[in-house]
Every structure is written in structure tokens, then in C-alpha cells.
């Protein structure tokens, strides 16, 4: 368990203030057990990294509103798509040679064609939804700037995180003007499309996703953020 040293006494004006660094008491039994000692020193390194690493989100004034569900398996599927395309590309020439020069039946030809077309269709579908399914929706505000921006975090072609920052006035609020009954019906739907002018249509799930900051999220989806920026 980490123990924090007491704060040093006041040394008066002109004295240097040093950052307090935590220390961990290691027992003799932990030092005799290599596995336990490794875990102990690993926790020390993790704690030191947490304290010394700068808070990038705080510097940007980041406020997370929503996090999508199932992003880890979805990322795995998107990355497996790359190996699928590589496999199909590697088999394209042998399959084509076999169909042209070999003696094949119509059933075999149809099955080979369906295999190639099916792999291509699955890859295109995964690529389409990976660019639209939102893994994280947040508000960004840089220091010294009054205007806030929306950040839609999705997956790119390679399965890496892609942050798309858009001004709030380009968001077409999907819940603007909806009554309480309509809001209840929309909340029960699995997916909610969000259109952004000049960009694309994003998809979130109010039913299954994690609403980190529900009040601000509803305000954004109702168009309140754009009205605040324009003063209307």
C-alpha cells in the first residue's frame, strides 16, 4: 500500500518547493519472492508515471459526454478486415487462373465468385460503419478560446482512433423540437444517427452506450450548444 510522506514545514520566502514523490514500503517477504517483488516495483513505476505525466485532456478542456459500447471487439473486427483483404488478394490470381484454365463446374465457379464478393462486401461494410460508429463524443475547449467544439472519435481504416473535430453550428441536432413522448421512443431505439454538415452521418446508441454526462449530451443533441454560440 502506498504511504505518502508528510508535507515539509514552511521554510520561508525564497525557499524552493519540491514535488512530493510517493514511496512504497517493501517487506522482506516481497523481496524474497521474485514475482511479488516484480509486481511491487511495477506498481511503483505506474504510480510515478501517473504523477509525472501531463494531463492532456485538462489542457484541452475536454469534457466527455458519451462512450460507445463494444469498441474493443469492433476494433478487432476492423483490424481482422485487413488480413481478410490480404488473403483475398493473395488468392485472387490462383482462383482466377483455376477458373480460366482449369476444368471446373458451374457450381464451383459460383462458389469461388461468391467467396470473393462476400469478402469484399464484408470489408466495405466494416469500413463504412467504423467511420461512423462513435466510440467517444466529447466537448473540446482550448485555453483562451470561448467557443467549444465537438469531437467525434471513430475508427479509421486500420482500426486506429480517429478524432474528428467539428464546430457546433455544423451539427444537425437530431432531438431538436422533440416532445417528451418522442424522446422516450428515440431513447429505446438501438441506434441514433447524427448528421454533420460537410462531414458524414455519425451513429450513437443512447440505449446501450454509456452516457457519461447526460445533461450536456442532451443539450448538444437538442441544439443547445449551437444556440449558445450564436446567442439565440
From TrEMBL:
Source organism, top-level taxon: Eukaryota
InterPro entries on file: Tmem186
Cellular compartment(s): Mitochondrion inner membrane
Keywords: Membrane, Mitochondrion, Mitochondrion inner membrane, Transmembrane, Transmembrane helix
Main location: mitochondrion
Transmembrane segments: 82-100, 106-129
Topology of the protein relative to the lipid bilayer: Multi-pass membrane protein
Family: Belongs to the TMEM186 family.
Record's protein name: Transmembrane protein 186
Organism of provenance: Coccomyxa subellipsoidea
Amino acid at each position: 500500500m502506498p504511504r505518502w510522506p508528510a508535507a515539509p514545514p514552511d521554510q520561508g520566502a525564497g525557499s524552493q518547493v519540491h514535488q512530493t514523490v510517493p514511496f512504497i514500503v517493501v517487506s522482506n517477504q516481497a523481496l524474497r519472492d521474485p514475482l511479488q517483488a516484480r509486481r511491487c516495483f511495477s506498481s511503483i513505476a505506474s504510480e510515478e508515471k501517473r504523477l509525472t505525466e501531463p494531463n492532456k485532456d485538462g489542457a484541452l478542456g475536454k469534457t466527455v459526454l458519451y462512450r460507445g459500447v463494444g469498441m474493443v471487439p469492433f476494433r478487432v473486427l476492423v483490424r481482422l478486415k485487413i488480413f481478410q483483404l490480404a488473403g483475398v488478394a493473395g488468392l485472387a490470381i490462383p482462383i482466377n487462373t483455376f477458373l480460366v484454365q482449369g476444368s471446373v463446374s458451374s457450381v464451383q465457379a459460383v462458389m469461388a465468385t461468391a467467396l470473393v464478393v462476400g469478402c469484399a462486401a464484408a470489408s466495405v461494410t466494416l469500413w463504412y460503419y467504423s467511420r461512423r460508429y462513435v466510440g467517444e463524443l466529447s466537448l473540446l475547449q482550448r485555453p483562451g478560446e470561448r467557443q467549444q467544439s465537438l469531437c467525434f472519435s471513430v475508427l479509421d481504416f486500420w482500426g486506429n482512433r480517429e478524432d474528428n473535430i467539428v464546430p457546433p453550428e455544423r451539427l444537425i441536432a437530431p432531438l431538436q423540437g422533440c416532445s417528451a413522448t418522442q424522446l422516450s421512443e428515440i431513447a429505446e431505439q438501438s441506434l441514433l444517427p447524427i448528421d454533420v454538415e460537410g462531414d458524414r452521418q455519425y451513429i450513437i446508441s443512447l440505449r446501450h452506450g454509456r452516457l457519461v454526462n447526460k445533461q450536456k449530451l442532451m443539450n448538444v443533441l437538442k441544439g443547445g450548444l449551437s444556440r449558445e454560440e450564436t446567442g439565440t
